[in-house]
Design brief:
The chain is mostly beta strands.
Length: 171
């Protein structure tokens, strides 16, 4: 893909940028920007019960006025999922992986920070307990990754490990 963007809005920390909480952000206009890259996707039914999904995005960005990369746009993102269906029990399971690559941010002073890459793992179990009712158990961020422990420059905080139990119905 190749995109020319006029009047792109980006955010930048303007106050309290060196502390973990209490940062103040403002929005700024980028008159002309370019985003270009490659997206790939692969899906495979390994067996009747086992499926594998993978996607990767490589992203290259530029603020045409400064020649610098756009902030908060990771160069690489990867997602993968391995799903298995326990047919005898009517149970579906999945393990998901997310990789967010390094990205740059800019302070109002012009200082540049490189945010480190990070990986997240997730797990899901679900079972249809009635014709239109599904029970599910999810664990998000299994590794309890805390972005602010990696860098105080992250403008957001990834939730720690979270457990969900849910009931979904279709009608």
């Amino acid at each position: 893909f190749y995109n020319k963007v006029n009047d792109m809005i980006v955010s930048r920390c303007i106050t309290n940028c060196n502390i973990v909480f209490g940062k103040i952000y403002s929005y700024f206009n980028v008159d002309n920007a370019v985003t270009k890259g490659i997206e790939t996707e692969f899906n495979a039914n390994v067996t009747e019960q086992l499926t594998f999904n993978f996607n990767h995005t490589y992203l290259d960005t530029e603020n045409k006025a400064t020649g610098k990369a756009l902030p908060n746009r990771p160069k690489n993102t990867v997602n993968a999922k391995l799903s298995y269906e326990f047919s005898d029990w009517g149970v579906q399971s999945a393990v998901r992986f997310e990789h967010t690559g390094t990205q740059v941010i800019y302070a109002t002073s012009g200082a540049v920070s490189n945010l480190p890459s990070y990986n997240l793992w997730h797990f899901n179990l679900s079972k249809n307990i009635m014709e239109n009712v599904k029970l599910s158990l999810n664990v998000e961020n299994i590794g309890n990754v805390r972005l602010l422990e990696k860098s105080n420059d992250f403008g957001f905080s990834e939730r720690g490990r979270v457990f969900f139990v849910g009931i979904n119905t279709k009608f």
